[in-house]
TrEMBL record:
<keyword id="KW-1133">Transmembrane helix</keyword>
<keyword id="KW-0472">Membrane</keyword>
<protein>
    <submittedName>
        <fullName>Putative membrane protein</fullName>
    </submittedName>
</protein>
<feature type="transmembrane region" description="Helical">
    <location>
        <begin position="225"/>
        <end position="242"/>
    </location>
</feature>
<feature type="transmembrane region" description="Helical">
    <location>
        <begin position="84"/>
        <end position="107"/>
    </location>
</feature>
<dbReference type="GO" id="GO:0046872">
    <property type="term" value="F:metal ion binding"/>
</dbReference>
<feature type="transmembrane region" description="Helical">
    <location>
        <begin position="248"/>
        <end position="268"/>
    </location>
</feature>
<feature type="transmembrane region" description="Helical">
    <location>
        <begin position="12"/>
        <end position="34"/>
    </location>
</feature>
<dbReference type="GO" id="GO:0020037">
    <property type="term" value="F:heme binding"/>
</dbReference>
<feature type="transmembrane region" description="Helical">
    <location>
        <begin position="174"/>
        <end position="193"/>
    </location>
</feature>
<feature type="transmembrane region" description="Helical">
    <location>
        <begin position="280"/>
        <end position="297"/>
    </location>
</feature>
<feature type="transmembrane region" description="Helical">
    <location>
        <begin position="150"/>
        <end position="168"/>
    </location>
</feature>
<keyword id="KW-0479">Metal-binding</keyword>
<keyword id="KW-0408">Iron</keyword>
<dbReference type="InterPro" id="IPR009056">
    <property type="entry name" value="Cyt_c-like_dom"/>
</dbReference>
<keyword id="KW-0349">Heme</keyword>
<feature type="transmembrane region" description="Helical">
    <location>
        <begin position="119"/>
        <end position="138"/>
    </location>
</feature>
Amino acid sequence: MSPAIRELLDLVFRWMHVIAGIMWIGNSMLWNWLDRNLQPSKTGKPGIQGEIWLLHSGGFYFMEKDLGGWDRDRPLHWFKWQAYTTWLTGAALLIVVYYASGGALLIDPAVADLTPGQAVAVAAGSIVAAWLAYDFFLGRLISRMGRMGAVLGLGLVLAVAYALTHLLSGRAAYLHVGAMLGTLMAGNVFRVIMPSQRSLVAAVERGELPDTAPAKRAKERSIHNNYMTFPVIVLMVSSHFSDLYSHRLSWVLLGILVLGGATARHILNVRFGWPRWKPALAATFAATLGALALFTVRPARSSASVAPDAAGPVTFAQANAVIQKRCAVCHSADPADRTFGPAPAGVAFETPEQIIARVERIRVRAVETKTMPPANKTHISDAERVLLGRWIAQGARRD
């Protein structure tokens, strides 16, 4: 697949993925809010579970929750394709960005010695295995365990994160844990929630009372989806934050993100009956941010700690030789390696001005986090990274 086609597909699928995800999550949160804010019905009609008045778009809306059925002369609207479209476009993105790029973003030789085929098998296999285990056993166990089920769920996510961060690149591991949770959510819609709704409609059409067992199971899975929402969102955008996924304890940081997101979601769920939910939410935010900072914030390095004077000055010519050999292979208008197309992310290192303008980016990505080049595909050595660090610490002079 050519880089131009890959980038075009990346754009199209990502655009669709974000739009569908907003619709899916937005609908989920709206229905969750409605369920928790319904007021007792004043009509006295049987089957009415609650009602609510809403104001939006310059008009008043009245809604009832009715288990007895609906007006057969009116269409019944279902909510499913937002979930399916989100998952399908997400799967397409995994293929385009990670599986069809020869392992460029999937493999980190410093982590594990895998071929592209083996890495794809690990990545995709982890998602499939997680869904099968969850759907046939773990989902029911987590529901029966109550609060301890949440602890078990977090522990399982941490176990998967630990395994993937020791087999794949940190960026790929984070994305695949997010894809795993997104698959559980979409699978819940397809396998449990939608069948329950179809059985409800069928029972009403037959004039029978609906079986409560499918509805109960669907409600349990809907609650699981609710708590996975915030963790999935943060993991889907995690590729922008190399300090997290490149950390030697990246799996711990992933756990902090998941715990913080799920806790925030819980507080927002119970806020209607908990007067102190605002300080609790603020405390959760502060604790999550503080825990992440504890691991990731590093004291500023002095020139002495990065480039001892005894090592001597590093010239621009020396630093540029490394950049042209290890970085400009991709980061140029006409790259030798076209895996990511010309000048990925708009970054080019063809002139001294372009290099000087991106010194801080070079320091973070190539020297400190070592997330560039991706999967070290140009084989930059530790000595070359140190040389770049010394040049930057000495003021990044253009001699």
